[in-house]
Amino acid sequence: MRRRYTYQKCQSQQEYPNKMDRISKLPLGIIETILCLLPIQEAARTSILSREWRYLWTKIPNLVFIEKEFQVSTDQTDRAELSLYNKPSKRRKMSKKSKFIDAIYQVLLIHEGPIHEFTLDMQVDDSGVEIDHILLHLSKKNTLKMLNLDIIGDGYEGYVLPISLFSLHQLTELYLNDCALFHERPFTEFSCLTTLYLNGLSTYDTTLLRLLSSCPVLKRLMLYCDGGTISDSRRTTIVDLFKCVPMIEFLSVRFFIVTCFVPERLPKVLPTALVDLKYLCMDHFCFSHKYGLPFLALLIRSFPNLEKFKLVMYEDYWLDEDEMGAYTLEDYSDIMLEHLNEFHILNYRDAEDELDFGKFILAKSPVLKKVGIFPCVKFDEEEESKILKSLSLSPCAAPVGEVVIHLEPN
C-alpha cells in the first residue's frame, strides 16, 4: 500500500503542471508584460519554473532598478541568474551597493533584445562612474525610448550627466532627478523626445536653453528648477526660455524659475503665443512675491487655448521685504480665459488673495465647468460653506457645472 501511494503521488505531481500551468500557454507578448510588472529580482526567479521560462526574463524590454528595494539574497537561484561569479564568497564580501551595481551589470550583459524603458533610482558618490558605464552601454544599444534617472549624489550639484546621454537618439521620454548638466558644447538633437521632466537639475541657464532647443518636438515639459540649482548669467530672459519650446502642450513649472531669467525684464505677453498649450501647472506660487502675478499673467496671456489650470500655493513667510509685490488683480482686467474648462488650487490657506483669484477665474472663464479647491490643512464644514457662498455670490462668466471644496489636503 505504501508503494502504491508513493507511485500515485508522484504521478499526480507529474500531471499537475500540465493541467494547471496555463500561464505558459499565453502569447509571448503577454508573458513579457507580466514579467515587466515584477521587480527584476522576482522576474529572474521565474527562470526556475521550467525550461521554457529559463531565459524569458532576459528578454523583457522594461528594466527598473531601485536601490532601496534591492534585496541581498543568499538564495542559490539569485546567485545563478544575477551573477557571473559562481563564487558566493566573493559576493558576500561586497557591500550592498556593490551588489546592486553588480546585479545591474549582469542583467545588462545577459539581456537579449531591445531595452525600451530603463529606470534607475539610487544614491551615488561624487564620481558616479557606475552610472556612466550603464548609460554608455545603453547608448551603444540605442533602443531606449524612456529613461528615468533618480540620482541622489553626495555632492551639492548631484550626479553629473555624461555626454553619452545625448547618444540616446530614440528617446521619447526623459526624466532627470537631482542630476547636473554642465556641458558647454552643442547637444546632439533629441529628435524624438516629446516628454522632459527636470527636477532639481543643476545647470547654467544657457545650458538649459540649449537642452530645450535640442528637443524640437517636445510636447510635455515638467520644469522643477529654481535659483538654487540654475546659475544665472543675467543674459537670458523668460522669452528666450519659451522660444525653445514652440510646440509645447503640457507645462508644469515651479514659480521660482522666473528668478533665473532676468525677471526685471518680464514682458506682458510673449512675442509668439504658444497656441498648442492646453495644460498649465504653476507650482510653489505666491501672490505676495513681486513677480508672482506678473509672471502668471504673462503665461495666461500667452497661452490663448489653455483648458486646464492648476495652481499650487506656497507659504510667503520666507519672503524678504524687497521681494514683496504690490500688484492687484485690477491690473490684469484685460485677461480672458476663453477655453478654460477646469481650474484647481492646491495648498489653499483661505487667504484673501487666493479667494480673490478664484473669483477672478470665475469671472474670466466663459466655458469653465469644474473648480476644485484643496486646503493645506483640514477644513471643517463651516469653512467649506463659507468659501462656497463667497464664490457663488461672485460674478461668473458662465454657470460652473461643479465647484468642489475638499475638506482634506491633497
Automatic annotation (TrEMBL):
Which Pfam family, giving just one, matches this sequence? F-box
Classify the source by domain of life. Answer: Eukaryota
Secretion signal span: none
Q: Where is the FBD domain?
A: 334-406
Give the matching Gene3D superfamilies.
Ribonuclease Inhibitor
Stored InterPro entries: F-box-like_dom_sf, F-box_AtFBL13-like, F-box_dom, FBD, LRR_dom_sf, LRR_FXL15/At3g58940/PEG3-like
* Name listed for the protein in its UniProt record: FBD domain, leucine-rich repeat domain superfamily, F-box-like domain superfamily
Query: Species name for this entry?
Result: Helianthus annuus
